Each structure stands twice: as structure tokens, then as C-alpha cells.
Amino acid sequence: MATIYDVARLAGVSPATVSRVFNGVGVSEEKVAAVRQAAAQLKFFPNRTARTLRRQSSEVIALVIPDIENPYFTEMARGVEDVASEAGFSVVLCNSDAQVEKEQTYLRIAIAEHMSGVILAAASDRTSLEEIMAAGRPVVAVDRGTGYDIDGVVMANRDAGRSATEQLIEAGYSRIAHIAGPEHIETAVERVDGWRTALAAHGLPADPGLLRFSSFRVDGGREAMEELLALPEPPDAVVAGNNLIGVGAIQVLTEHGLTPPAMGVAVVGSLPFTTLSPSVVTVVRLPARHMGVTAARMLLDRIGGDDQPARTIVLRNEIQAATVSR
Amino acid sequence: MATIYDVARLAGVSPATVSRVFNGVGVSEEKVAAVRQAAAQLKFFPNRTARTLRRQSSEVIALVIPDIENPYFTEMARGVEDVASEAGFSVVLCNSDAQVEKEQTYLRIAIAEHMSGVILAAASDRTSLEEIMAAGRPVVAVDRGTGYDIDGVVMANRDAGRSATEQLIEAGYSRIAHIAGPEHIETAVERVDGWRTALAAHGLPADPGLLRFSSFRVDGGREAMEELLALPEPPDAVVAGNNLIGVGAIQVLTEHGLTPPAMGVAVVGSLPFTTLSPSVVTVVRLPARHMGVTAARMLLDRIGGDDQPARTIVLRNEIQAATVSR
DNA sequence: ATGAAAGCGCTAACAC
DNA sequence: GTGTTAGCGCTTTCAT
User: Fold this and answer.
1) Together in a domain, A142 and A79
2) What is the pTM of this model?
3) Which residues form a coiled coil (chains A, B) (predicted)?
4) Which of B49, B102, B277 sits opposite A52 (nearest CB)?
């Protein structure tokens, strides 16, 4: 690999001048030409590691998410990436696999690699940001809060849980179960809250047996749905706590010949790649891409030196109601 | 941020000793203890940028894929990640968005950031690897070949196309269309080949109107399926060139009241998050995770200095036939 | 506008 | 086993 010195020698200038050419500051026309020509000839690309070491910062941001196989997060990632690359930043995607330890490792890498900032969908409410905050790197929380006083972008989760439930009530269902995500994740708890609120508002029972905490994954949805169906008095409808739970629940229902709307189904989150007709399942669409875009903008602002007090932005959902009921 | 010098001073040793402690070479028990204690107190983490600059290599590999929203690639990413992190490497995921220019940018970043190697699912047959190869960084191709003499892991695409088609033939369909991926992508072309072969072997027509080149995405599948249905003489079955095309095609069929098996459907690739019964659609399962695992192992071997001639590994598929026909 | 030179934080010879 | 020291390739004062 050619260095700045090789280019300088070939172009007959100093290393400093080569650096200036690549950083767009005042250099005379002729020298610019000479340097560019020499660089091309040597296939020179500036060594980013050296630049980062010298500058103590790099145009890279980290996006840490708990499940790279969940389309909700990849859609968000696209939003982040579009904004970041527009601004000349690269995004490195880190999959914490919902484990606090892995997450911690990635946060340390972000510090140690001089990344400019982090967008984080926390693995749990036990996530620690001490180190990264001590390092002075800006962090924006997405999807879930963190317990720290930092910027954040979240969905209107209570609303989402409530609307999903209300749609089922309006469609005439009355024994409405809820398969929620893990109890230690904020979004899950808030959606449960919405489900409770809606039931209470309509004088329906929130039978504890109808609430299942599960994982935010397909198998979690499957297991919980099986349990619900095995109940002495099964529900006649179910609210799925996220997209993957929805997929799992519907799979099980299909296997039992209870394809919606035989049993009512409402899902918080878009159904990824569904082949179902949109008329049979109520979906509360969560603007994942928009969340990514917003978070990236906030982070870039912070990187740019913005130091106003921390803000949290709550994104509104869009409901897409089933038109068919049983 | 504390440096190695700060730690050395506090622990009463030389910077070199601190370095040794963090790199696991012979240091006396007491000094190790002193250094660890000092490091903890100062919240010291080794600066990776500096280490990378010095060592001229970093324990990071890049995984460049054309569509981060496609579960096929994220599943593969998990495989890569599992192997890599086991070996102490981090993976940075780069989304080329199927654009050769973006891909080129990421490859340059990989060079400039001293990453140890790259796993690449090429955006197109025009992908250039000149620079990265000149930089001496190992590259392993996945999913698609590259036209360069490098290691690769690919699926048995012809087989996949052929098996998918034959399943439909055996189920009694005779006018079998194929919605393929882009014509400039190897995997797409090979699957077309398999489709042709199967039809020929059974004396069925490969009507040119029944072959549609499209994008490897849901909307590509949708458009092509609409076109096929609008034909004066529409097909009675269709082979989808990948998972997302399959989703799009089935969506359109459902909207037209032609849910499989009213029209036969076979998909090359697993249907992500499907809520359909497995009995109605034939699926050729592609071992995406395994592909990632294999590629990561090959890359790590190369990084470790392995210099045997380039190998290409072809992964076998598993067919999961529909049990219901019309 | 340009060059000389210092130094970012770490590692790896090389001495002892 | 441990310390000294010279860079890795770049940016950035400070002179000129």
C-alpha cells in the first residue's frame, strides 16, 4: 500500500501538501493536479486508521440492535444508513443477540475504534452506558429507553397496544389474549399496558391466564399460542406483541384450522413478507425506517456539537384494520 | 481516555509491560495484578486504532451483502458472525444495496481500515476486486461467483431450479412459468437453467413468455406475477427464483383468489416468516446459515496464512415438497 | 501556499 | 521478565 510519502515524492511536494489535497484545503491548481496524478498512478488511498488515530475521531457510527434477523430492525437500519451515508458516515451494524454482554463488547469496540457515536436498541433494562458516556461519545436510544438521560426515539407503544386491542373489540371479539415480549423490555410492558387499558375501558376481563410473556421471536409466539389454545377456556382473539410473535401465533392457528378471522388476530408491528390477505389481520404499523432516519439525524447533530438537553421523540403509529370478522 | 502510559505510570511499570499484559505474553504475576488494578481504576481500554496502525491488521472482517432486508442474507450473516466471534473477530455488516458503486466504497473502506478480510455477496457480475486483491486482503465470495480466482461458497442453483420445477411437474402441473432474478446475476441464470432442463426432460415447452427476469425482491415478484396472470394463456404453476419473489408472487395470487394449490407454486429459498401451511407450497431450502459458517471458516483460514489454491464449495439443498396439489 | 516536524497510542525489536 | 525506543501513516501547528 502506497503512503502519503510515496505520493509526495512522486509528485515532488511535501507530505503535508498531499494531505491537504485530500482534505480540500488551499493548494494551488498545479500541485493538486500533480498530487492527484501521482495518487492515481500509485493507487493510493488514505489510510483511515492513521487518520483516525491522529484526528481522534472517525466518520463511522455503530448501530447496535438485538436481532438482526428481525425485519423491524433491518428496516430501521436502512433508515439510519441512508441518512448517515448521505452525510459521509459509514454505519457498522452490530448484533447484540439480545445479550447484555455482547452489547457491552460492541460498545467498547465503538469506544476503542474511535467511532463517532452509537445508535442503540438496548438489549435489556440492565444495559450499562457508563463507559461510553464517560468516553464522551453520543448515544441515541431507539425503540426502547435506557434509564439514562440521553436522546431517544420510541414508538407510541401504549397506543399501539390499545388500538390493536380495540380493533378486535370492535370486530366483536370479547375474550382477547395478549402474547407479549419479555417482561424486562420496556416496549413489551407498555404494550401490555395498552391492552389492559383497552379491555378495562370496555368492561372486559383482563384474565391473567390470557396474558403470556414470551420472547420477541417466532418460536416465542408459537409456544404461547399453543398454551393459549390448550386453556380450558381459550381466547377468541389474540394481540401479538410484535411482528415475529404475530407470525408464530398465526402459524399455530393455521395448523389448528383456526386461520383468522376464525380467531381474531391483531399484530403490533408490520407483518414481514406476509402472504396473508391484509383484510384478515389487523396490523399496527410501526414506522421503523422513520425511526432510523430520526435517530440518525439526532446522532449526527450531537456529533456536530449540539448540546441542548436530551430529547425523546415519540413516533405515531398507523393502524391498518382487518375488514373481515368472523 | 486513559492511555497505556497513564496505566504504566500508575502501576509503576513500563508501557511495554502494560501492552504485554493486554496481549497475554509472559509477565510476572505481581505486575499483571498491578497493571490490571491500575487499568480498572483508570477505566482503560486499549485503543484499537493505534494497535491496528501499528500491527497493520485488525480483528475485523467485513461482510458485504446486496440486501440487508432479505432474511436469506441476514441468516447468512448470523452464521458468519457466530464463527467469527468465536475466533475473536468482529464482523461489520455493509449493505451494498445491489449497487456496484456502494460496494466499491465498502471494499475501499475495508482496505483503508485494515480489515483482515472480506466476505462478499457480489452486487453484480461487474464487481471489481482489483484493488482489494492488490492490497493482499483475502476475499471469500458467497452466494455468487465473481469471475476472480478466489475461494467461494455457493448453492447448487441448477439443482435447486430443476428440483423445484420437477416437483410441480410431478404434482401434475404442465404450464410452468419461472420468475427469475436479474439477468446479470449468476444465481438467477443458473436457476433458469435448472428450470429449462427440467421442462425439457419432461417434454414440456419452455415458452419464452413464461420466463420473466425481475429483481430479487417482493415487488419484482409481484409485478412479474401480475404480468403472467395477464397473459392470454396464463401458466398453471410458477417457480419463484428466490424467497422474496416467492412472497410477492403468492401475495398476487392470493389477491386474485388463486392461492396455492389452485396455482402451483415452488420457491427456491425458504419462505421467511411464512404463515402458509408448508403443505401447499414446495420450498427448496437453501442452507444460508451454513453458507455463512463455511465462508467464515475459509476466510479465517486465509487470514491465518493458508495459501492453497482457491476452492469453491457447493452446498446441497433440501427439498420440502408440497403435499397438496389441485 | 508550502514544508518541517511533532505526535496520536500502541507494539515489537532490541537490549539488559 | 522488563524497559527503551523507534516507528505505523496521517494531520496539524508553526515557520517561512
Assistant:
1) yes
2) 0.93
3) none
4) B49
